[in-house]
Specification:
This protein has 325 residues and is an alpha/beta fold. It has 14 helices and seven strands. It folds into two domains: 32-254, 3-Layer(aba) Sandwich (Rossmann fold); 267-317, no CATH class. The chain has helices at residues 4-28, 31-35, 38-43, 57-70, 84-87, 99-102, 118-134, 150-155, 171-180, 197-212, 236-253, 255-282, 284-298, 304-317; strands at 45-51, 75-80, 107-110, 139-145, 160-165, 186-189, 224-227. The structure holds guanosine-5'-diphosphate (GDP). The site of guanosine-5'-diphosphate has 15 residues, from helix 4.
């Protein structure tokens, strides 16, 4: 005879099994697909924002972010600033630079991680993006300084790339233009107010013609140049209009979905690369040889290729490898 306790135990066991199956299923799904539905993905706006120091990035994000939260959006601001750990410069995403937005219940600001390698910092930012998507933030801005290679890494994390420039020329801007304009989907000339307005118009014309020489990356979107003032807020709604225009066009054509899928593949390889390098460096016999090989390469006794081959042979010799974590 089955007792009441036995009956209850068997129902609990069935329930546990169902839960375990669901957990197993979830762990096999891609993280982003598991958390975010297609409808949410369609409405999601993930943009990288870069620009030289002093261009007005934090002032713009504060004005733009407030405009969005006032319109009912949830905004996350994440930062990638690999230089801050070495230069001690001002932190991107620092809450004191965006006082109003940081007090806003519908905004989340995450300062840039200050320690770790470029790869590590970026990996954590990429994971933070996925978490923000899951937490219901529908606008995610990733801020970076347009001086290193970080903006190119960020371009692999976001849907569109926004370049913010001040109304001033100079060598620094020339150099900036060359590389970043190639990944920019929207150029925003900031500080288009007061005495700076004529200069802002000139810079807008310069960028518009610079963009004509850039190889198009999209069939449906032509990069635009607009003027805004983060102080008077003029042009802020237009910036949002352009961003949603980009999203709608690229989503409807299937380009955006394909881009996100490709980015997942890039990040899979980024993770593998990071872990492999860690494994390699922690391998006992490789560790013993690294200093000597580096020294010999620097003294010119051996070519970099031969040294790398010797280290890789050492790594392959013993199957015993330590855990990267
Ligand atoms: P960031 O280094 O790129 O984050 O630049 P900030 O946001 O700190 O701005 C640098 C300076 O430019 C500050 O003194 C701001 O007040 C000023 N600034 C930012 N946006 C505007 C703008 O739209 N118009 C004017 N006139 N000044 C601005």
């Amino acid at each position: 005879m089955i007792t009441d306790i036995e009956r209850r135990c068997s129902s609990v066991l069935i329930l546990v099994n169902v839960l375990l199956e669901q957990v197993a299923e979830l762990s096999q799904t891609d993280c982003t697909d598991g958390i975010v539905t297609t409808h949410q993905r369609l409405l999601l706006e993930k943009a990288g924002l870069t620009g030289p120091p002093g261009a007005g990035k934090s002032t713009f994000i504060e004005a733009f972010g407030k405009f969005l939260t006032d319109s009912g959006h949830k905004v996350a601001v994440l930062a990638v600033d690999p230089s801050s750990s070495t230069t001690g410069g001002s932190l991107l995403g620092d809450k004191t630079r965006m006082p109003e937005l940081s007090r806003d219940m519908n905004a989340y600001i995450r300062p840039s991680p200050t320690s770790g390698t470029l790869g590590g910092v970026n990996r954590r930012t990429n994971e933070a993006i996925v978490l923000c998507e899951g937490a219901g933030y529908d606008v995610i801005l990733v801020e970076t300084v347009g001086v290193g290679q970080s903006e190119f890494v960020v371009a692999d994390m976001v849907d569109m790339f926004v370049l913010l420039v001040p109304p001033a020329g100079g060598d620094e801007l020339q150099a900036l233009k060359k590389g970043i304009v190639e990944v920019a989907d929207l150029v925003v000339v900031n500080k288009a107010d007061g005495d700076l307005l004529p200069a802002a118009r000139r810079i807008q014309a310069e960028y518009t013609s610079a963009l004509k020489f850039v190889r198009p990356r999209s069939v449906v979107w032509k990069p635009r140049v607009i003027r805004v003032s983060s102080l008077t807020k003029e042009g802020i709604p237009k910036a949002w209009d352009r961003m949603t225009g980009f999203r709608n066009k690229t989503w409807n054509s299937g380009e955006l979905d394909m881009k996100r899928r490709r980015q997942h593949r890039v990040w899979m390889w980024n993770h593998i690369q990071d872990s492999m390098i860690k494994l390699f460096r922690q391998h006992p016999s490789v560790q013993r040889l690294i200093d000597r090989m580096e020294d010999r390469v620097m003294r010119g006794e051996i070519t970099p290729g031969a040294a790398a081959d010797a280290l890789l042979r050492e790594f392959q010799k013993s199957p015993k490898t330590s855990n990267p974590e």
